[in-house]
Amino acid sequence: MELSDLATVEVKALMKGEKQILLLHAKKSYLLSITRKGKLILTLAELSPSTL
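Above: the chain's sequence. Below: its structure in token form.
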């Protein structure tokens, strides 16, 4: 598969002006963050069941 064959999503569209969003995958939550320097960080979110 070529890179040009992959679906493309603009981070700006995904984040909608926010610095952090929650991504859900395989019953787990991940926090996608944009740093002050504009880098992306994806971390496993440790959330309590009441926040989901």
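The chain has a mean pLDDT of 90.
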